[in-house]
Sequence to fold (94 residues):
Amino acid sequence: MFSDEIRNLLLFRRSLDESIRQIAKDLQLKKCSVETIISYKKKVIKQKRGPKMKINKADALSIKRFVANQNNAGQIVTCPKILNVPEEHSITAC
Fold:
């Protein structure tokens, strides 16, 4: 609703200990509007809640593809085999 210039001006003048009523009168704004703008704090972008992924989606799909290929070939899939994946199924983080 109000531009960043007006917001910064209001915050600056308030930091100089001017009254809200005087700021509103000087800038020809309503007192309640000035109070709202001064009390408004922008939200800090937070990280998503919940457990974080250990590996990215591409690596997870690569492991899934490798395990499926091993199962189709009739081989037993073990952790050392997954960690020593050939280059065509490269995994960046494990």
About this structure: The two ends are 48 Å apart (CA to CA). The mean pLDDT is 83. Residues 57-72 form the longest helix (16 residues).
